[in-house]
Every structure is written in structure tokens, then in C-alpha cells.
Amino acid sequence: MDISKDELKEIALSSYELLVKLPAPKAPESERDKYEITSRSKLKTLPEALRENEDSAASITHFVKHLSYSLPRAESGDGKGMLSFMYLLLEKIKAYHDKDDTADKKVSKIKYLVGYTNWNIDAVCSIFTAHRDDNEQVKKRLEVMLSAELGVVGAGDNVDKIVSNIMGWKKKSDEKQQPRPQYKQPQKFQRGRY
How is the chain split into domains, by residue range? Predict the structure, then answer.
């Protein structure tokens, strides 16, 4: 299925819009840990729901049902963490539906959108991890990556805004990180002294 440059531009921009609607990634607690989305497996399996049916229209219906069922359950607790992401993704799907595209093309656009969002998660969390305590380096790496990606599809003028949104997303992640317990030296006791 051929997707035009303008359609790819729309999908790429939407994928970054979706990225920052996810709950902020879990910040690393030690040098070995990395930034990660705790419910990442739910997001990775979303495209599989589009492959369940031969009929493209039925695949979209199945995908929406799967999305609406699984994402609110992706986070522990009340499940509200994924709702903003889910609602925006449903809005994007509705916008694809409202266009005069064929059902096959709509399925392709949804696959690209979810796939790009998943790639964004991996790429951005890798950058966060590689430069965990250096926000200037994180920002620089994001600018380079986004300029290369978005410049090709004619969306280079959106780089600064997207980088700002992603840095705000990282800030939320860093703020909710629990302070590491300080190691306390054991007291030394000497015999015969009180």
C-alpha cells in the first residue's frame, strides 16, 4: 500500500503527539537500569490485533475493541495512565476513517502510526538512558534524530516543539523517581567504652 509523503508527515507528527500522551517512562533506579514504559508489551502487541481478520474493515473494528479493552488494564491501579494515549489514538483512527481511503489504506495508516509510536518509545527511552543525567545531551540527540526524520517528510519546522514536549515528558519521569536511599555507615562500637 503506497502512502504519500504528506500522509507520512501526518503519521510521523501524530506518533510523537501520541508518545507524550503515554505515562512518563519509569526512570532508572540504578546505573544498570534504563528508562522504560512499564506497559510496553501491551503497546507492542497492538498491531497484532490488525492481523486477526482477512477483511480490513473487520480488522479495524477488532483493533479498536482490543485497544479499548487492553490499554486501560495496562497500568496497575485505576488504569487512567493510558487513557489519554488511548483517546488520542482513537481520535486518529476516527480521522483516518472519515477520509475517503479504502479500508486497506486505513489499516496501513494505523499500522504505521502504531509502529512509529513504538519505535519512538524505544528510540527516546534509549536516548534518555544513554544520557540519563545530562539533559543538554538528551536535547541535542533528540534534535538531531528529529531533524533527520522529520526533515525528509517536510516537517522540520516542528522539531523544536516536539523536543520541548519530549523534554517535558522526561521531566515528569525524573520527578516521579523515588529518591534513592542513602547508604548509612554502620556505627563502630569499641569494646569497653560506653
Answer: 5-19+32-175
